[in-house]
Structure formats: C-alpha cells, structure tokens
Predict the 3D structure of the following.
Amino acid sequence: MDFVSGVKKPDTRELPELLSGELLGQTVKVNGAVHTIRHMGEIAFIVLRKRDGLLQCVYEEGKAGFDQKDIREAATVEVEGILESEERAPGGVEIRLKGIRILSEPSAPLPLPIAKWKLNTSLEAKLNMRSVSLRNVRERAKFKLQEGIVRAFRDFLYGEGFTEIHTPKIGAKSAEGGANLFKLEYFHRPAVLQQSPQLYKQMMVGVFDRVFETAPVFRAEKHNTKRHLNEYTSLDFEMGYIDSFEDIMAMETGFLQHMVRLLQQDYAKELKMLNITLPKVDEIPAVRFDRAKELVAEKYNRKIRNPFDLEPEEESLIGQYFKEEYDADFVFVTHYPSKKRPFYAMDDLEDSRFTLSFDLLYQGLEVTTGGQRIHDYQMLVDKIAARGMEQEGLEQYLDTFRYGMPPHGGLGIGLERLTMKLVGEDNVREATLYPRDLSRLEP
C-alpha cells in the first residue's frame, strides 16, 4: 500500500537558492527551458528560462559530457554542473555544465524571437501566439506585476476584515441594466452573462458586513478601442456601516498604498526590468464632477459639450490638470450625475441630480467606479419605478432590503486597465492574457 504524505521535495534547485550564494562551488541540478543558445566555437552559453528569471549555463567541449549540437532552443532540460560566481551573467551566477538530460524537444522553430530583450513584433502577432510571446521575459513581467496587484488587493482587504466571496456569472437579470448584455439560452430559459457582481455584493453585506471578489465580468459593448474589453477582471468590494462614500475612497487609497509597498518589496526585479516608476499614492485629490469639467474647460480652453458625462478626452485632460497642478497620478472625480449611474446609486440629498459616487482616474483613464448605495427599501423601490424599470428578476435582491440593510457602498476596479497604466502601455490588450473583444475569441 502506498501513501502520499505531502509535497515531494525535488532534487533540482530553483533560482532563489542558486542566487543566495550558499551553493557556490557545489554540484547542482536545475531544470528549465532553453531560452537561447550562443555558440562560441568550443564554448556555448546556454541560457535557461526559469519561473523566477534566466540562468546562464556554460558548455565547454570535452568537459560537458555531451555535444552542444544536441541542444535546441525551446527544449526543456535538466542540467547538472558546478555553480560559480560570474558578475556578467544574469543574477551574477552560472553553471559550468557536466551533464544534461533532455526532457522534451520542440517539433518546430519558435515563431517569435522571444530571447530578444524587447519583442519587436505587432500586438496582433503577440496575441495570435500568446503562449509563445509570453515566454519573453519582459512580456511575462507585466503579468507578474498583475499578480502583485491582485495579491495586494486580497491581502489588504483580508487585513481590513473583508470576506472573499464567489458569485455566479450566469443570471436571469443584469445588475447594470442597459442593452450591453451577452444573452444565452440556459436550459430553454433566457439568461445573461453578468456585467457585475453588484447585486450579490450588496446582498452579502447583510451577511458578512464587508465582502470582496476578484472575477471576470462581461460587457457586450461594441467598442473597438484601446481601453475596452468585452471580458475583463474586476476587483470588487462592498462594505457596510459606512458614514459616507468617502469611506470607500479612503479604503481604495489604502489598497493602492499597500499595492505600491508590496510591488516595491516583492516585485523589484520586474519593476526594474520594465523601467517602471510607481505612482504617488500618499494622498489622492478629490474633485466634484461639475468642478472638474470647469477646471479643464478653463485651463485648456475646451468647451463643455455634455454637462452630464465625461468624454475620454476630458478624462485625459483632468488627469493632465491634476498632474500639472498637484503632481498627482490619481484623482477621484465625485458626484456623478444621477442619470449616468445605476438605480442603486445613492442620490445626493442636497441635489438629487447628482449621486454620492465617484470614478478614480489614473493618469487620465478611469480605472474604478464606486460610491454609496441606497440601503432603504422604499427609496430603492421608488427609484426603480422612477427609472421605468420592472421589479421582475429583482425580487430576492429587494427582499434583502425589505428585511433591513446597513448604510453601505463599494467599488469595482478594472484589473487590466490598472495594469496597463502601471506598466506604461497604451492598449489594454497588452495587459490581458487572452483578450476578448469584438474580433477575438481565440486563443
């Protein structure tokens, strides 16, 4: 009888162990993918790609116990040799090869020059061959930083007493309304892919007080821009017993501060590789929606064309204004018009044309929408009626408020947009593993 007693420790070494300096002069075994080979006559430099970075191995004819012609780029191998210090090598160490075991070999040459420092090819080519293009270390680094963003979001909210939840993505009715829905047949019944976990988040505030989720959302918008996707990852939280929507803004600011600290501490290598300067988050200015439009109109001599919405150009100029005037990378734009917010948004009691809600702009791009929600049952019912909406499909959501709910609010952060701005790209697809847009369903 065999028993499994836990994680099996391999006899191969990982990059952090090799870089620690404790194994210098010793024989080590390492596995990895052959990232590139530089043939230098009787010597060859074989660079392995590991999950933590690159490792240089040195082949010397007559000493390595194999022929360098037997090794091909993209093969996966297990090598054995002496670990030595070499300041010119990646990480400052290299392995003097004694032997090699080939684990697998490619059946075709690589379609992209992944070993180059910058992958100088079109975005379309990178997306068509995504699993190959991401083997480039700089392309891969973007998604390590994206991991850091999600990790920071989770860690910070756990520390603030939030409970992680997982809500369904198929529903009978949408949280946001409107026509931008993906409709499907669900066992002979009409259904939709959820645009947001909003209604579920609010319902769960009545259970756990503070909840969050990281999950995909779906928008059937026929946009074909550099900032829109039809499926993206939303970082959502909802919190109860708030005094105002400013509590939500303060919580997001705390998350961003935690994110910057974590990236500085644990992702310094990726930040350096991509030459990233992290944004300022010690304090974030907040400006009313109507005042923001006025400031931009005055400074940049731009006529206000739509008093009830922000055009992309206006968002960009608001970001520019606050960078120039306050050296701010982020700005909260508050009190959005009620007609541009969903039915559950709390109207400003002093002026019901506006809501107690906000967007967060990062260098002129909206990355967050949030605010205070209506928590009074009758107020919610009245607003649904005033919007000309039907209660059908919202019965259980409304019952939650019939039985009592605390003042609450929350937000949703677009992960890919936040990543895009952080890494300095201008197309959200650069920060999306496998984008879904108007034309792309594969890979």
User: Anything to note?
Assistant: The mean pLDDT is 93. DSSP finds twelve helices and 18 strands in the chain. The first strand starts at residue 27 and ends at 40.
